[in-house]
Amino acid sequence: MLRLIVQRLLLLIPLLLGLSILLFGWVRALPGGPVQAMLGERYTPEAAAEIEAEMGLDQPLPVQYGKYLLRLIQGDFGTSLQSGRPVLDEFITRFPATIELTIVALVFAIGIGIPLGYVAARRSGSIIDHSAVVVSLIGVTVPVFFLAFILKYIFAVELGWFPTTGRQSATMIATHPTNFYVLDGLLTAEWDAAWDALMHLILPGIALGTIPLAIVARMTRAAVSEVQNADYVRTARAKGIKPARLRSEHILKNAMLPVVTTIGLQVGLLLSGAVLTETVFAFSGIGSFLANSVFRADYPVMQGFILLIAVVYALVNLIVDVSYGLIDPRLRRQQ
Amino acid sequence: MSANELPVTGGPAAEPLHPSIHGDGPGGQDHGGEGVWARAWRTLRKNPVAIIGAVIVAVFVLVAVLAPVLAPYGGSELPGRAEVRPTMIPGPSAEYPLGLDRYGGDVLSKLIWGAQASLLIGVLSTLFGLTGGLLLGLLAGWFGKSVDFAIMRLVDLMLSVPSLLLAVSIAAIAGQSSMAVIVAIGVVQIPIFARLLRGSMLAQKGQDYVLAASALGLTRRSVTMSHVLPNSVGPVIVQATLSLATAVIEAAALSFLGLGGGEPSTAEWGRMLTAAQQELAVAPRLAILPGICIAVTALGFTLVGESLREALDPRNRTRR
User: Fold this and answer.
1) Residue of chain A whose Cα is closest to the Cα of B285
2) In 3-state terms, what secondary structure has residue B184?
3) Full residue range of the structural domain in which residue B123 is found
4) Average pLDDT, integer, range A6-21
5) What CATH code is carried by the domain that includes residue B227?
6) Given an 8 Å threshold on Cβ–Cβ distance, is B164 in contact with A276?
7) DSSP per residue, B206-249
8) Which residues contact A310 (CB under 8 A, 6 or more apart)?
9) Residue A89 neighbours by CB distance under 10 Å
10) Where are the transmembrane segments (chain B) (predicted)?
């Protein structure tokens, strides 16, 4: 198991190197070139000359890339044009918000998707089966930001059940030791602050979780339909095993492998979706910050965030791959 | 036998491939004398889901093509400019069946012109992605070894960035225009098509008929082009149909993020949705109508793509 983890971590290095080359080239391909990209609206010939000297743009490209890579390794991802703060700091302060949102979205997607897909497969042709098909179609065809609009309009604007924007009500006074607002509220025993932060997560979480919900439900339905007709399930049933045990030990557990893969792959989708959902709900995570950077042509942030998001994405998929071993003992032995 | 039925199965993206499917050799033929595509077409005709999808797609394409005839006003016209106040946006009336938007544009006309914009973006970007992906996939599948390795690492690299972010960064280089959006969405699809075609070609390469063709002394070029490739394009064509749905949605997402250029009042579904955000409480129809258009169009392409996938799936062949 440990060997697998180390192996996969080593494989990350060429990926990140390749990505850094692409992003290095990307900044140079931007309209106006890297200097314009770094300075944005503050562009003056003097500032440009200063940046050019600082970045060594007169040097050959490999040397420039080497310096860029060296800065990356030291954790220097550049400076945001919007805020003037280091890109890495901006990422670290906002990332907990996006993690919280992603967790709520995944809980929603898995919590509804797996039972829905399971029942749909077990009662093929029933109303639940048909509704599972409809849900998975809605999930893949309705744009996530449109869904966010609609949820916000119905449940926040019209019904007033949930707050419309932000991570916490402006009137709420709370301390934030970790920047995970719900966790902060629990740690400091400020229960109302935790509840308030949770309420702010519900609508964006549902909007973000709908596409994964559709895909998880669909995968579960397909996997369970295949497994439930397998020979070993028939044998187990013939041996008189208790139905509850048959369901949990034989059907569900074996059907989960493709579903877990799917869930891992959803993380990229969630990070894409977070850009849109966070913007609609003015939720200050990495997604809305990135969307603002696109609006304001804040290229250092785009460059740094894309690299950091790729790292997160790769790490999540690593965790998913490792978790196969926990679900499937056959893979454990091979490893 | 089935040449006249072919154009329906693949759509515009598949056309260049048709001659090779029914070209020489046993490539495109299946046992029993009936082509894979002819059988798929027969299955599709009986599938109500496929028919619903096809009807949606047909209506969408008709509206897009006939936009100049159908739309009461031009795409960039703002006929109701004088009637719109910052506090009041007139709703549906005899003159404007779906009301006006904040710029004074006729919502019905803008939706119709928006269909045209979406169709153009969808088809062009999918063609772009398909061409790029086919080229890369073909190179990888043809040469194998080091070429395959290099191409697949590039594909991995592109897939390591979430798709929307990749599209956004490409659009940032390509500038503020609708062409930039087309290129951005197209590039994002390249790795998907490339990986799909490569996998599909690898699976075919080990098949007996390919070995037989090689044993008969056919050149690698002729084995690849007339045997392996025609039998590998099925999944790619399914993906192309599904890609049309994603392209429509992604185009809306990019214009929601302020990419794509043009006036804020441009008759484009994503742009209309963005503009409507500020009037959500006053005039929700401004957001709901373009949103429904996007969703229904995407649904149409998804239904057609999924039915096509089912019809082409060899595991379903016994279910005649």
Assistant:
1) A150
2) helix
3) 35-81+95-319
4) 85
5) 1.10.3720.10
6) yes
7) TSHHHHHHHHTT--HHHHIIIIIHHHHHHHHHHHHHHHHHHHHH
8) A15, A16, A19, B160, B161
9) 14
10) 49-71, 119-142, 154-173, 179-197, 236-259, 280-304
Instruction: For residue A273, list chain B residues with Cβ-Cβ distance below 8 A.
Output: 164
- How far is residue B27's CA from residue B229's CA, in Å, rounded to a whole number? 9
A86 phi and psi angles, rounded to 5 deg: -60, 140
Query: Comparing C-alpha atoms, which of B273, B109, B106 is closest to residue A153?
Result: B273
Distance between CA atoms of A201 and A165, rounded to whole angstroms? 10
Task: Give the confidence band of B32 by pLDDT, cuts at 50, 70, 90.
Answer: low
Tell me the count of A-B CB pairs closer than 8 A. 120
Q: Round to whole Å and give the CA distance between B176 and B115.
A: 21
* Contacts B164 to A, Cβ<8 Å: 272-273, 275-276
Question: Cβ contact (<8 Å) for B165 and A297?
Answer: no
Alpha-carbon distance A318 to A181, whole Å?
A: 27
CB B183 within 8 A of CB B128: yes
CA distance A271 to B297: 25
Rounded to whole angstroms, how far apart are CA atoms A285 and A270? 13
Mean pLDDT (chain B, rounded): 77
* pLDDT, tens digit, 9 for 90 and up, residues A125-134: 788 888 888 8
- State the smallest CA–CA distance between residue A43 and chain B in angstroms: 18
Hey, are the CB atoms on A295 and B258 less than 8 Å from each other?
yes
A198: left (phi over 0), alpha (psi -120 to 50) or beta: alpha
Q: What sign results for the dihedral spanned by CA atoms B198, B203, B204, B208?
A: positive
CB atoms A272 and B295 under 8 Å = no
Contact B213, B227 (CB under 8 A): yes
CB atoms within 10 A of CB B237: 22
Residue B64 phi, psi dihedral angles, 5° rounding? -65, -45
Instruction: Give the 3-state secondary structure of residue B284.
Output: coil
Report if residue B28 sits inside a domain.
no
B76, B96, B169, B262 from B79: Cα distances, Å:
9, 10, 36, 19
| CA A292 to chain centroid | 18
Interface contact flag, B173 A31, Cβ < 8 Å: yes
Q: How confident is the model at residue B9 (pLDDT cuts 50, 70, 90)?
A: very low
Task: Give the span between the Cα atoms of B313 and B320, in whole angstroms.
Answer: 12
Residue tagged 């849109």 (tokens): A276
Q: What end-to-end distance do the CA atoms of chain A give, in Å?
A: 6
Give the alpha-carbon dihedral of B239, B240, B242, B246, to 10 degrees: 120
Please give the mean pLDDT across all residues of chain A.
81
Give me the number of domains chain B comprises: 1
In a domain, B20, yes or no: no
Is there a contact between A146 and B295 if contact means CB atoms under 8 Å apart?
A: yes
pLDDT digits (tens, 9 = 90+) for A245-285: 887 778 877 888 778 878 877 887 788 888 888 888 888 88
Contact criterion met (CB below 8 Å) for A112 and A213: yes
Residues in contact with B67: Cβ distance below 8 Å, sequence separation at least 6, in sequence order = B75, B112, B113, B115, B116
In a domain, B3, yes or no: no
Across the interface, of B163, B169, B288, the residue whose CB is closest to A302 is B169
Which letter does DSSP use for residue B76 in this model? T
Residue B4 covered by a domain: no
Give the lowest-confidence range in B153-167, B174-188, B277-291.
B277-291
